[in-house]
Design brief:
The chain has two domains: about 110 residues, 3-Layer(aba) Sandwich (Rossmann fold); about 100 residues, 3-Layer(aba) Sandwich (Rossmann fold). Helices cover about 50% and strands about 15% of the residues. It is built from nine helices and eight strands.
Length: about 220
């Protein structure tokens, strides 16, 4: 019987990048997708995560478990700080979207630049990086840039403008960073049309796909 991974989404923009990662690195895994896209719209309007939103997130995560998932990956980084609060409610391993990527960034250490396109995701990723570094006893310096106009372009199906804005910021930040972190899954596809230099650029989908499959196989 093949491994089943539940994918919990708050935006359609996260779907293609994580599906691409699984199809590339773990093609034999079965995927169960559940979504509440209203979460990201509400978050962008209010820039606040409420108890109601957490309950909705718990609800769709439960649907993934009920559908037979061996492990569950939440793909929206804005909700990552709340994932540890709900994992005990589920009988299968549950991982936030960027936990594995943050570990990798802290391992590189030094000056880390974060690029986000959703207002909440920027400071969320920054705070989690510092928290991860503290837990690992490492010293880092984080610089964060938020490009809301890039997310707006993506919502209007203007992938070219979305990618162009991110590329320009990577070009700028790479010169002064030991690593660049793209805070959201929806940003990963921008690298398909980008020629990377020597500075590592980290995205969640590839690292997270490998991590959640490993957790599922451990049981």
């Amino acid at each position: 019987m093949s491994t089943k991974i539940g994918l919990v989404h708050a935006t359609m923009n996260s779907v293609q990048p994580i599906l691409h990662a699984f199809h590339t690195y773990h093609p034999s895994v079965d995927l169960i997708n559940v979504m509440d896209e209203g979460l990201i719209y509400e978050l962008n309007e209010t820039n606040t995560i409420t108890q109601s939103m957490i309950r909705r997130l718990m609800d769709i995560t439960g649907k993934a478990e009920d559908a037979g998932a061996d492990a569950i990956l939440l793909t929206c980084s804005s909700f990552s700080p709340y994932v540890p609060e709900i994992t005990h409610l589920f009988g299968v391993p549950t991982l936030s979207s960027d936990e594995s990527m943050l570990d990798k960034a802290v391992e590189i250490g030094g000056r880390i630049s974060v690029i986000a396109t959703v207002e909440k995701a920027g400071p969320t990723t920054t705070n989690l990086l510092y928290k991860t570094a503290e837990e690992k006893g490492k010293k880092i310096d984080v610089n964060t840039v938020v490009l809301p106009e890039a997310f707006q372009a993506l919502q209007k199906a203007n992938q070219a403008k979305h990618d162009e804005l991110i590329h320009a910021e990577i070009d700028k930040l790479s010169k002064e960073s030991d690593a660049v972190v793209l805070a959201q899954y929806s940003m990963a596809s921008s690298l398909d049309s980008y020629e990377r230099g020597s500075t590592p650029i980290l995205t969640g989908p590839e690292v997270s796909a490998n991590a959640i499959v490993k957790l599922a196989e451990k049981g």
